[in-house]
């Protein structure tokens, strides 16, 4: 084949007879093959139908016999289904034999009989025109011979159904019916086998006939065509070889396509390689089926390979005459590289348009060539307005200076630049912008274009500033945090060192702030802290700094002083301001503060030291007086170190068994006999000797050790009382002091019960002494805790009554049975009229509420006499006895051998 028209016409004339012959041979073979295939499909339908019919017949007999034997409805249903198959086939057969039938009805009957749909038309044709064909005739006869027997089986099924339904079917009748079923089956079965054999023989006979017919026709036709082809092809072989060389060596894929059918007549090797298949496999394939998209005649499209991959191509077609028909020569060129470049360009354009950041592309002179929509939205400048203007003309450094030339030199040298600039909008306003600049270079490496990506960082900077503020300021009060305070203090110290000035640090701690939290709520406590912060700031100059470094701990930095003593005026003003009442809506609270002052350069050279020393001075102020201020002295620091060491040693004191108990008797005022003892803890330090409770109990409370100490006291006091009982000493009441931290702990009540169980002492001989602050700390759970103690049988004494908030409501709580009059009211008796009035009032209140009164701190006979006349029932004090170890208590309680009376500790009354 050649592309020239003259050659095509010549070739067409030479190949025309060969083509005609080939078409005839192929058509004849295809026709015979189609006929053979249809016949085979029909025979397959026969065999399939025969198989289904035989199975249905056998199963029908089995189901009917089972139904006759057992009367199960499912057996009858099975028989009905199989009989329906047999009946459908018979109806179709008889209808065709009558010559007057509906094709649709017959096909429907065969379909119900299970015949494959493709075989039904052929079966109808054979039954209608070839029923006398060998083996078919015999098969139909055998089929008809069992019709009556099948009808009789159906009649038997009906009789059995009626008999079982009415209950009149006796076993004899059922057995008779089964015998008849067996007889009918014996009649049907050999005929059914003969029917199957005839159908199989007929299929075999017809297959052999068709095979030999097709073989003979194909052989004759092929011989004739081969002789013709040999003659014609010999003449054109040389021309074909020359054309094939050009055809196969082409860089593009070439398809020769029949213009009428669109099928490929030939293709070159390039086409086969692209499609991933053999060249011969392409012949006869529709060219359009090879394209996943586009037209196979002209234009761009996608050529699909055998593995499913596609290749972008461009097709050009031309028509040439090939004999009497038109042939299309399609030349397909691979355009993958071009499409990839276009796709990359499109993606870049879409990305530029859709990116959230503003993008500017400028030429080597920094003149804008294009900008995306995000940049126009960001700045208000449309892309056309910016074209040919320098993009750095509307941008400066954050301090207002233009972008320096060194920046462009660095970028030209190959670096990218990222930094913050101040950008101007179209309306003249400015905003902070983060800009990144990179370059696109030519082949010589020189900048050809600049690409700038910009974004508005106004919100980001605001967030950063807000985070910085949160990191350096207390969220509740707005004051600076410890780290920020230390940083500013260090800066102030540096300035003071250069200017030979002074700096003062004030450490402010609220007095009894914990009581506010416990008495009201943490919300009220937070509100109070905010108001305290406001009052502290109000006393400061603009350059002074206030910070919050703990729950109720504040620090103040006073800079630019000549000496630390100048801080005294500010501290006194602060104390006065904080002493004024705080109006918190429903509450009016009074608080005070303790302030410690330390200054540079006298008390320290760095921020941490000044804060620590001011803290030490504050501790002294709080310990000695409260609502006071103190300047730091070196002795304070030594005391602070001593407290720290004591705190460390206190943690080990329990484990080392360094604590012991002493017991102070409580005597009956009228008789002078000992009725109770109060357990008091003492710490025998291995190096420092005896340490008073006033020194280590506050430290234990701060360290959270007080609960373990209270539990230790409770357990040991209970065991000691049990030991005295075993020694048959007079029964005493044991009083133990419980701190606020222990009373508010969830395990406190459990610890009371456990101590009672372990020691075995009666609950009514254990007295729990609580201060008003301990009860106040428990808040809403106070009543529940008191009720639990009352249920246990343990009494409670209100200790130091009158020195705290003195709420009379506490005296009505369950378990409260004792009222202790504090030593501060006893000391002035009987000469101080105020102490006299207060003591008499407390005794009267206790008497009216049926509470037992105990006065503590009695040291003189006058105090004893007054309290006895006032009606106080018990007393404690040095007048009677100091706190004693257990063995001394035993000697006091031991009966006198001479007179049989116990020791009276009350001096005899004077005449």
Describe the protein.
The protein has 911 residues and is an alpha+beta fold. 52% of the residues lie in helices and 20% in strands. It is built from 29 helices and 28 strands. It has an 8-stranded mixed beta barrel, surrounded by 5 helices. Strands 2-1-6-5-4-3 form a 6-stranded antiparallel β-sheet. Strand 11 (430-441) and strand 12 (447-456) form a beta hairpin. Helix 2 runs antiparallel to helix 3 (103-112) and helix 2 packs antiparallel against helix 6 (147-166). The protein is elongated. The protein starts with a helix and ends in an 18-residue tail after the last helix.
Summarize the structure.
This protein is of the alpha+beta class and 911 residues long.
Topology, please?
Elements: H1 5-70, H2 73-98, H3 103-112, H4 120-129, H5 136-145, H6 147-166, H7 171-248, E1 253-258, E2 264-267, H8 269-275, E3 291-294, E4 299-304, E5 310-322, E6 325-334, H9 336-354, E7 358-363, E8 368-371, H10 373-379, H11 383-386, E9 395-396, H12 405-412, E10 417-424, E11 430-441, E12 447-456, H13 458-472, H14 482-499, E13 502-511, H15 513-519, H16 522-538, E14 545-548, E15 553-561, H17 567-579, E16 582-584, E17 587-589, E18 592-600, H18 607-624, E19 629-631, H19 634-653, E20 659-668, E21 674-685, E22 689-691, H20 693-703, H21 706-726, E23 733-737, H22 740-743, H23 748-759, E24 766-771, H24 772-778, H25 782-792, E25 795-801, E26 816-821, H26 823-826, H27 833-848, E27 852-855, H28 861-870, E28 874-875, H29 886-893
Parallel strand pairs: 18-19, 21-23, 23-24, 24-25, 25-26, 26-27, 27-28
Antiparallel strand pairs: 1-2, 1-6, 3-4, 4-5, 5-6, 7-8, 7-12, 9-10, 10-11, 11-12, 13-15, 13-18, 14-15, 16-17, 20-21, 20-28, 21-22
């Amino acid at each position: 084949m050649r592309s020239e028209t003259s050659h095509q016409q010549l070739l067409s004339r030479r190949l025309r007879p060969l083509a005609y012959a080939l078409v005839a041979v192929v058509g004849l073979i295809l026709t015979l093959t189609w006929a053979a295939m249809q016949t085979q499909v029909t025979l397959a339908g026969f065999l399939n139908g025969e198989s289904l019919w035989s199975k249905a017949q056998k199963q029908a007999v089995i189901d009917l016999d089972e139904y006759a034997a057992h009367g199960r409805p499912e057996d009858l249903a099975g028989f009905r289904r199989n009989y329906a198959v047999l009946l459908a086939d018979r109806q179709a057969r008889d209808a065709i034999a009558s010559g007057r039938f509906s094709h649709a009805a017959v096909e429907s009957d065969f379909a119900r009989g299970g015949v494959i749909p493709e075989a039904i038309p052929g079966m109808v044709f054979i039954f209608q025109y070839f029923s006398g064909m060998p083996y078919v005739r015999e098969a139909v006869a055998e089929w008809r011979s069992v019709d009556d027997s099948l009808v009789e089986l159906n009649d038997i099924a009906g009789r059995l159904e009626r008999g079982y339904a009415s209950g009149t079917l006796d076993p004899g009748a059922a057995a008779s019916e089964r015998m008849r079923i067996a007889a009918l089956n014996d009649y049907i079965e050999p005929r059914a086998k003969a029917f199957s054999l005839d159908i199989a023989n007929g299929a075999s006979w017809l297959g052999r006939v068709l095979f030999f017919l097709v073989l003979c026709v194909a052989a004759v036709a092929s011989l004739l065509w081969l002789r013709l082809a040999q003659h014609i092809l010999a003449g054109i072989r040389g021309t074909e070889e020359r054309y094939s060389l050009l055809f196969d060596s082409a860089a593009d894929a070439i398809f020769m396509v029949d213009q009428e059918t669109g099928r490929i007549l030939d293709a070159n090797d390039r086409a086969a390689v692209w499609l991933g298949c053999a060249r011969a496999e392409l012949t006869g394939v529709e060219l359009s089926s090879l394209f996943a998209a586009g037209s196979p005649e002209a234009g761009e499209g996608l050529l699909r390979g055998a593995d499913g991959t596609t290749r972008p191509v461009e097709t050009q077609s031309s028509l040439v005459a090939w004999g009497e028909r038109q042939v299309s020569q399609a030349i397909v060129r691979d355009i993958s590289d071009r499409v990839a470049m276009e796709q990359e360009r499109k993606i870049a354009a879409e990305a530029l348009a859709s990116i959230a950041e503003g993008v500017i592309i400028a030429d080597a002179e920094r003149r804008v060539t294009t900008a995306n929509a995000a940049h126009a939205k960001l700045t208000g400048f449309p892309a056309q307005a910016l074209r040919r203007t320098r993009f750095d003309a509307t941008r400066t450094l954050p301090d207002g200076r233009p972008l320096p030339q060194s920046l462009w030199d660095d970028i030209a040298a190959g670096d990218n630049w990222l930094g913050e600039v101040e950008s101007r909008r179209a309306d003249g306003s400015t905003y902070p912008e983060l800009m990144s600049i990179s370059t696109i270079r030519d082949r010589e490496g020189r900048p050809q274009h600049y690409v700038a990506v910009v974004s508005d960082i106004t919100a980001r900077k605001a967030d950063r500033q807000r985070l910085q503020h949160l990191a350096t300021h207390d969220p509740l009060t707005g004051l600076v945090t410890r780290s920020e305070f230390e940083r500013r203090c260090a800066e102030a110290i540096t300035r003071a060192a250069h200017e030979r000035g002074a700096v003062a640090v004030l450490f402010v701690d609220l007095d009894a702030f914990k009581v506010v939290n416990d008495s009201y709520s943490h919300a009220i406590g937070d509100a109070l802290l905010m108001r305290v912060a406001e009052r502290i700031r109000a006393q400061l100059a603009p350059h002074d700094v206030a910070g919050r470094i703990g729950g109720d701990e504040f620090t103040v930095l006073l800079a630019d002083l000549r000496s630390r003593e100048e801080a005294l005026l500010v501290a006194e003003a602060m104390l006065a301001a904080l002493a004024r009442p705080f109006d918190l809506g429903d509450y009016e609270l009074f608080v005070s503060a303790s302030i410690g002052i330390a200054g540079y350069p006298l008390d320290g050279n760095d921020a941490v030291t000044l804060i620590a020393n001011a803290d030490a001075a504050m501790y002294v102020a709080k310990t000695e007086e409260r609502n006071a201020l103190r300047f730091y002295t070196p002795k304070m620091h030594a005391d602070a170190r001593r407290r720290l060491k004591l705190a460390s040693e206190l943690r080990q004191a329990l484990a080392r068994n360094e604590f012991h108990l002493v017991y102070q008797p409580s005597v009956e005022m009228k008789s002078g006999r000992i009725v109770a003892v109060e357990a008091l803890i003492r710490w025998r330090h291995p190096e420092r000797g005896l340490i008073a409770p006033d020194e280590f109990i506050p430290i234990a409370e701060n360290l959270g050790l007080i609960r373990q100490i209270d539990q230790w006291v409770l357990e040991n006091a209970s065991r000691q009382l049990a030991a005295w009982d075993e020694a048959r000493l007079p029964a005493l009441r044991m009083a133990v002091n419980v701190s606020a931290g222990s009373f508010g702990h969830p395990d406190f009540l459990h610890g009371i019960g456990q101590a009672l169980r372990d020691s075995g002492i009666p609950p009514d001989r254990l007295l729990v002494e609580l201060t008003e602050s301990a009860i106040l700390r428990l808040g809403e759970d106070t009543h529940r805790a008191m009720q639990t103690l009352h249920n246990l049988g343990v009494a409670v004494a209100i200790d130091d009554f009158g020195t705290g908030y003195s709420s009379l409501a506490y005296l009505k709580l369950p378990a409260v049975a004792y009222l202790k009059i504090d030593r501060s009211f006893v000391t002035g008796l009987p000469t101080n009229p105020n102490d006299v009035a207060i003591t008499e009032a407390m005794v009267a209140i206790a008497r009216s509420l049926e509470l037992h009164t105990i006065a503590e701190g009695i040291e003189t006979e006058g105090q004893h006499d007054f309290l006895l006349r006032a009606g106080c029932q018990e007393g404690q004090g040095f007048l009677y006895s100091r706190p004693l170890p257990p063995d001394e208590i035993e000697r006091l309680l031991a009966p006198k051998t001479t007179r049989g009376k116990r020791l009276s500790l009350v001096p005899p009354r004077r005449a």
